[in-house]
């Protein structure tokens, strides 16, 4: 379920949702594919409708909120463009989630079965993810091709796509090697920076800045460290909720322990564990399909014995305080409300 943004009126939230429906209706009426590809287009529509809505929509709605803060009196047309860009980012992010669920053998996403687990889907989910990525390109071409900032927009999406792929590659490789090569918070932070920070927080703000024609290079540098720290907090929260969250709120059952994920909790555990606890972690963590309830309970109990729940809360509070401090030091050209609202939304989240 989407997080409520105070900076968006109820009417704007309704218009944001309606824009998604309009974009989806266009998928099956793409003129260049009308004659031969109706069946495939219908399947693409089904994939987008199943996978994209229902999330937190922090990224998509963040474009709208940021643009409103940057422009004093936005008109209807440009606000509509923020809705479209917001959904482009939501679809963009979903492409990675669909593939990631398959790689990690996840069962649930956003309160329902993962796409690849549906009848007759399986590995086709990879193809569907690439098709959804194509939808983003088509939407950007259709609505922004004649805009003077179009090259900047396309370059941004291409750069973030590569950055995210590199981060996911590093994450997957680290999860394969796991404890055999040790765990470090430095490596974890690097994974999160590229896997989460740029696509979840830098991309929405950058889109709004391009749309508002406020693309000063110094401004980009000023916000980059701030939004990447938001990404670090956001990913650590996801890692914590995977193990200790309520599936009724998160919409999914945790898989990090079974799938050997390079998570904040396991990294912190290896920082604090004694040799006996490390041996137990190595014996029970990352067993894949062989992982049992007993294995997972053993790992969770070690986390608790090491005081990781307390450590996590301290980390969350300290990181939030650091983010707020960075926000307070922003230059006058960048409205602080862009970031303050997002920081407030993600702080102490439970889903």
From TrEMBL:
GO terms for cellular component: cytoplasm. It comes from Folsomia candida. It comes from the Eukaryota. InterPro entries: FPS1-like, Isoprenoid_synthase_dom_sf, Polyprenyl_synt. GO terms for molecular function: (2E,6E)-farnesyl diphosphate synthase activity; dimethylallyltranstransferase activity; metal ion binding. Pathway: Pheromone biosynthesis. Keywords: Magnesium, Metal-binding, Transferase. This is Farnesyl pyrophosphate synthase. Gene3D superfamilies: Farnesyl Diphosphate Synthase. The lineage of its organism: Eukaryota, Metazoa, Ecdysozoa, Arthropoda, Hexapoda. GO terms for biological process: farnesyl diphosphate biosynthetic process; pheromone biosynthetic process. Its cofactor is Mg(2+). Belongs to the FPP/GGPP synthase family. The keyword Nucleotidyltransferase does not apply. It holds the Pfam family polyprenyl_synt.
């Amino acid at each position: 379920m989407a997080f409520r943004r105070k900076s968006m009126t109820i009417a704007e939230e309704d218009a944001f949702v309606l824009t998604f429906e309009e974009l989806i209706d266009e998928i099956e009426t793409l003129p260049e594919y009308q004659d031969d590809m109706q069946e495939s287009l219908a399947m693409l529509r089904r994939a987008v409708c199943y996978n994209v809505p229902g999330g937190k929509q922090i990224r998509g709605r963040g474009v709208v909120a940021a643009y409103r803060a940057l422009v004093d009196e936005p008109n209807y047309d440009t606000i509509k463009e923020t809705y479209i860009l917001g959904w482009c980012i939501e679809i963009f992010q979903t492409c990675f989630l669909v593939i990631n669920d398959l790689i990690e053998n996840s069962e649930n996403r956003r309160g329902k079965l993962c796409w690849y687990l549906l009848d007759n889907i399986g590995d086709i989910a990879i193809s569907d993810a690439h098709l959804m990525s194509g939808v983003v390109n088509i939407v950007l071409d259709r609505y922004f091709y004649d805009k003077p900032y179009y090259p900047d927009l396309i370059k941004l999406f291409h750069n973030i796509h590569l950055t995210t792929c590199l981060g996911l590659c590093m994450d997957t490789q680290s999860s394969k090697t796991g404890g055999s090569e040790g765990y470090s918070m430095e490596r974890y932070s690097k994974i999160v920076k590229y896997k989460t920070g740029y696509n979840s927080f830098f991309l929405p703000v950058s889109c709004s800045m391009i749309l508002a024609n406020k693309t000063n290079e110094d401004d980009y540098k000023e916000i980059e460290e701030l939004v990447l720290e938001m990404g670090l907090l956001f990913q650590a929260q996801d890692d914590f909720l995977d193990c200790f969250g309520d599936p009724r709120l998160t919409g999914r059952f945790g898989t990090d322990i079974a799938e050997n994920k390079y998570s904040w909790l396991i990294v912190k555990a290896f920082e604090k564990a004694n040799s006996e606890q490390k041996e137990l972690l190595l014996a029970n963590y990352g067993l894949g399909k062989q992982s049992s309830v007993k294995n997972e309970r053993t790992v969770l109990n070690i986390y608790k014995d090491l005081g990781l729940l307390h450590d996590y809360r301290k980390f969350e509070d300290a990181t939030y305080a650091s983010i707020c401090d960075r926000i307070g030091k922003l230059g006058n050209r960048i409205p602080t409300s862009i970031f303050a609202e997002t920081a407030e939304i993600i702080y102490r989240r439970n889903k």
